[in-house]
């Protein structure tokens, strides 16, 4: 019997939260794989022992590892948009630069469903250090994620979900976990460009849990702009992992906005109701006020623009306080 090989063409694109993806998309038409046929997608090979249909699905490859204990996954994680079940062989070919501290001799496949709960490796996989691959034959049921890690390592839940939504003048962040082990706290981080981050606050975790837990944090009154958020999930031993990035454009319902950001010289503040203004402050990361203007001083600014040419490059916080005590704040990057 001849073995059939199918190498699937890939589409590569860039993403904020992960360096690169390669993907296979299948539509409503059935993508039929006959028994013994090897389908390879970005070094992930599937060889079913029974006739298999891969339809209405998408396979993506990420170089962002899953954090685990004592080691995380290799820097090669595959995601299927919809659960996939089949009987047969799964093989991952990797580069040595993708091992992420894992021992090639001890590599085992690890899979997870949509909730990202990874099964502890069962030591049924075969590691092939000479061929730079690891493979296992068996029944694969409701698989959404596939990667590899060292035997004995546990890949914990990252997040069930992480959502950013605007509620009136605030941005509400909510997230859920379905499993926690040795967890300490979540640090909420904020950015206006998706590259430079500042911590907004912390939320204490439940420590150890095997049931779904839901958390939330409110970013109060951010200025009208594009905002990016991520979680730094910190364990009791100090190790940590980052969530995927969520972004949201806050509308100008606050009637306050500033641009450009990052800024090089002149920062313009748009505030139609200047009479409600109490003061404007720009504060450094160390907490020092590097610029301040009250309502009278602000009204004298040409085109409501602040000259920041002499300000040292770095990350700052801009605060606009109204006379009723309402405070609007956001991060400001000076180039």
Describe this structure in words.
This protein is mostly beta strands and 335 residues long. The chain has one helix at 295-299, and strands at residues 5-7, 11-13, 21-26, 32-33, 38-41, 44-48, 52-53, 57-62, 77-93, 107-112, 126-128, 133-150, 161-167, 170-177, 183-191, 198-204, 213-219, 226-235, 240-242, 246-249, 257-259, 266-270, 277-284, 289-294, 305-307, 314-322, 327-334. The strands form six sheets. Strands 1, 2, 3, 5, 6, 8, 9, 10, 11 and 12 form a ten-stranded mixed beta sheet that branches. Strands 15, 16, 18, 19 and 20 form a five-stranded antiparallel beta sheet that branches. It has a four-stranded antiparallel beta sheet with strand order 24-23-26-27. A hairpin with a 2-residue loop joins β13 and β14. The relative contact order is 0.10. The model is unreliable at 1-20 (pLDDT under 50). Keywords: Signal.
């Amino acid at each position: 019997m001849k073995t059939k090989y199918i190498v699937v063409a890939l589409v590569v694109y860039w993403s904020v939260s992960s360096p690169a993806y390669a993907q296979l998309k299948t539509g409503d038409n059935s993508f039929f794989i006959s028994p013994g046929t090897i389908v390879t997608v970005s070094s992930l090979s599937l060889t079913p022992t029974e006739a298999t249909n891969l339809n209405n699905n998408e396979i993506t490859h990420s170089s962002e590892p899953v954090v685990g204990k004592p080691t995380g996954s290799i820097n090669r994680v595959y995601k299927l948009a919809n659960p996939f079940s089949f009987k047969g062989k799964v093989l991952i070919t990797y580069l040595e630069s993708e091992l992420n501290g894992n021992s090639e001799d001890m590599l085992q496949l690890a899979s997870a469903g949509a909730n990202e709960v990874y099964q502890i490796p069962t030591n049924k996989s075969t590691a092939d250090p000479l061929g730079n691959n690891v493979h296992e034959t068996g029944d694969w049921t409701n698989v959404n994620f596939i990667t590899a890690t060292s035997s004995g390592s546990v890949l914990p839940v990252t997040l069930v979900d992480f959502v950013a939504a605007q509620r009136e003048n605030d941005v509400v962040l909510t997230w859920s976990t379905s499993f926690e082990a040795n967890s300490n706290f979540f640090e909420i981080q904020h950015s206006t460009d998706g590259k430079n981050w500042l911590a907004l606050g912390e939320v204490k975790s439940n420590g150890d849990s095997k049931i779904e837990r839901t958390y939330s944090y409110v970013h109060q009154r951010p200025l009208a702009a594009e905002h990016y958020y991520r979680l730094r999930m910190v364990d009791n031993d100090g190790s940590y992992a980052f969530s995927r990035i969520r972004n949201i454009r806050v509308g100008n319902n606050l009637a306050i906005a500033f641009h450009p950001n990052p800024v090089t010289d002149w920062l313009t503040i748009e505030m139609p109701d200047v009479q409600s203004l109490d003061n404007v402050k720009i504060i450094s990361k160390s907490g020092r006020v590097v610029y301040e203007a009250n309502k009278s001083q602000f009204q004298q600014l040409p085109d409501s623009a602040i000259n920041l040419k002499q300000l040292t490059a770095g990350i700052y916080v801009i605060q606009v306080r109204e006379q009723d005590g309402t405070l609007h704040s956001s991060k400001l990057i000076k180039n």
